[in-house]
Each structure stands twice: as C-alpha cells, then as structure tokens.
Amino acid sequence: MKLYHSLADLRREKTPIRLAAGFFDGVHRGHLAVIRRVIARARSRGDAAWIMTFDMHPLKLLSPLAAPPLLTSTPHKIRLMASDGIQGCVVLRFTRATAEMSPENFIVKLTRSVRNLRGLVVGSNWTFGKNGAGTPELLKKLGAYHGFEVSVVRPLIWQREPISSTRIRRAVAGGRLEDAAAMLGRKFSVAGTVVAGRGIGGRRLGIPTANVNLHNEVVPANGVYAIRAIVDRRSFDGVANIGIRPTFSRLRGRQQGKGLKRHKVLEVHLFDTRAGIRGREIEVFFIKKIRNETRFPCVAALKRRIIKDIARARQILGK
Predict the structure, then answer these.
(1) pLDDT (mean) for 289-306
(2) 219 and 104 in one domain?
(3) Cβ(228)–Cβ(237) under 8 Å?
(4) Which residues, in sequence order, are CB contacts of 159 under 8 Å at separation 6+?
(5) 235 in helix, strand or coil?
(6) Whose C-alpha in 38, 105, 202, 240 is 20 to 30 A from the C-alpha of 317?
(7) In terms of Cα–Cα distance, which of 128, 121, 149 is closest to 32?
C-alpha cells in the first residue's frame, strides 16, 4: 500500500481515484464498512481505492484537554487499514490553516489537488471544514457541483447503539475486552516498541520479560492477560502484565525509604522463544484477562503466581 502525505502527491496516480475519508481511530467495524464500500465502488468502475485521513485528532490542536485518548497511533492505524483492494493512504497534516478552512474551500482544494477524483465515501457522522460545518448532505451537493460521486455509509449497530471509537475506548478502559472485540471485529491490540527494562523478570524471577513502549494512548485496565503478539510478522503466544508492578515498587520503596512515582508499564513474556526482540516493533493482542494486578509479600510468592498465570494463559490460548 502506498503512503502519501499530501493530496498533491496523488497527481502521480494515473488511474481515477475514489477516497474513503475519515479519522478512523481504532479502525472498527464501522470504519471497515466505509473502506469496503470504497473498494467495491472502485472495483465496479475500474478506479483506484484510496484512504484519506489526518495525522492527529482535530481536538489535539483545537482543544487539547478535550481530545480523546487514541486507540491507535497513526502507523498502527495505517497497518490496520491496509487490505486487498486499497492502493494507498494519504495522511494529511491537521494544522490551524486546515481548521480555519471552510467546507467549500476544503472541497475546492481537494478537487484541484486530485484532478482525477471520481468519488468520496464517508460515514454518516463525518464532518469537515471549519467548526465541522461540512456535513454529508453538504458534501453530496458539493460533489454534484464538482463532478464526483458521494456515498454515505450508515453506522453499524451493536447492542442497539452505533459502533463508535468512544464506545470502544470506554469498553477497553472498563475491562470489557469482549465488548471491545465485538465492536472492533478483532481482539483489541496495542502497538509499541520493545525497550530495555530493569531485567527483574530474567534476573530475579527466571522468567524473561520485555517492556513495551506504547504508541497508542488507550490501554486495558491493570492486570494479567493471556496475549498473542506479532513481531516481525511472526506470531507468539504469551502472558502480559500491565500496571505499576506493586510488588517491586513496594520493595524498592522500603530500600530507598521514600515514595516512588508509579508509571504504568506493559511487560510481556512470550512462550517458547529465545529470540531477542529488543528494539523491535510489537503488536500485543489481549485475548483474556486472567486476574487483577496484585501486590505480593515477596519475590518468591510473585514467582509462584506468575508460574500459575503462565499455565492458565497456555490453557486459554490452547483453546
């Protein structure tokens, strides 16, 4: 899948283009319906199907305190959107100038940049232009004027309400991973980079773990989970802990005689592999929660519990 960062880059493309437009945070089932619609329209008319999105949520710029935490970083989102039938993705910078542009001027810029634009596919709640004044109804009128087709996809309903990124964020934060998976159409996952930790798992417990520097902002509730991970296109089963590592925080606090600032950390232990993965990109899928994070009286008690967690995770993943 090609990746561009400017609408003008699409001038290189000779085949007529149809765009699926949206922010697509989480790439849930409703977003996939928009993407599948643009693929179907493009194939039926011999056009190329592309995706147009932005590099940040508009509220990150306009009202940072009101901006929602993101389910997916931009690279993670792009990977999830890639599919057969999509020729490429245009990730536009969202700037003050973008925010101040009227809906009409935004479409003028779009049609001048993408001279072979044949169609636009959007969700029914998609807005564009200053203050979100551009609605799907206005888009249809502008499309008719500028000579491109507009297709509006209705929201998918799950448990009597539209599927949305907001509902998924709440489900993940509340530990309702099954609900999140039902709306996403896949198990909830986070992406990140494996970084060096303090070596506690391998040195003191004999159970090597990898710390993950997370790229996205929404993570499950603290606890221990059965997971599957993708590293270099290879799949691994494993177990993960997300939280503040209370046992070691307590022990370190005793040694240092003062309180410690506790940071939320994701640690993963991958089964049946000795491959070094430090510095690699990883995607971690949360399959099932095993237990809440717990503070143990000593390292030995923690190790005994982790061994049980590993056995339980293998049982869950074996099914």
Answers:
(1) 89
(2) no
(3) yes
(4) none
(5) strand
(6) 202
(7) 121
Question: Contact at 8 Å (CB) between 257 and 193?
Answer: no
Q: Is 232 exposed, middle or buried (0-12, 13-18, 19+ CB in 10 A)?
A: exposed
pTM of the predicted protein model: 0.89
Quote the Cα angle for 192-194-198, to 5°: 130
Residue 314 amino acid letter: R
The pLDDT tens digits for 119-177 are 999 999 999 999 999 999 999 999 999 999 999 999 999 999 999 999 999 999 988 99
Single residue among 162, 178, 209 that ends a domain in this structure = 162
Which residue type occupies 41? Answer: R
Of the ranges 42-51, 217-226, 273-282, 287-296, which one carries the lowest mean pLDDT score? 273-282
* Number of domains present in the structure of the chain: 2
- Tokens representing residue 113 in the block: 């940049």
> Half-sphere exposure (CA, 13 Å, Cβ side) for 162?
12
Angle at which helices 136-146 and 103-113 pack, to 10 degrees? 40
Cα separation, 198 vs 91, whole angstroms: 37
- Residue 182 domain-assigned? no
pLDDT at residue 259, as a whole number: 45
For the record, the structure tokens of 66 come out as 């009101």
* DSSP secondary structure string for all residues of 289-309: EEE-----SSHHHHHHHHHHH
Evaluate the CA torsion angle 71, 77, 79, 82 in order and state its sign: positive
CA 5/CA 52 separation, integer angstroms: 10
Do 155 and 240 share a domain, yes or no? no
Percentage above 90 pLDDT, the chain = 79
